[in-house]
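Review form for a predicted model. The reviewer records the input and the model, then writes brief findings.
Reviewer: anonymous (R2)
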Amino acid sequence: MEDFSCRASSLEGSAALISVSGELDLHTCEEFRTTLDEARRARPRHLIFDLTEVTYIDSTALGVLLVTQRQVKEPLHLVVGQRHQRRLLRLTGLDEVFAVHETLDEAVHKALERAA
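Model under review:
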């Protein structure tokens, strides 16, 4: 848990970026939720999650993302760099629920393109 970090920042075009690194699981989900709640207070139109530095993600974290997706109008943008995590999203069908991207630039571009 000591290598876990989660931070939120605002981007132009009414988007919030939540950057996560380390293991995103039952033990770190409370901090993840808190950071997400703080980011949502500004009422961004788009939520972008940079998960490229996440080494492990469990069902608890996926549940937080699903609950969030149900609460917002726009799709959540997930940046997932690791092949096994993209495969997990594909096998669970979550790649159809979230907008999944390989790079942060791609996610930001797609999110802001939708805002136009």
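Findings: Strands lie at 5-11, 15-24, 46-57, 77-79, 99-101.
Further findings: The chain has four helices and five strands.
Recommendation: see findings above.
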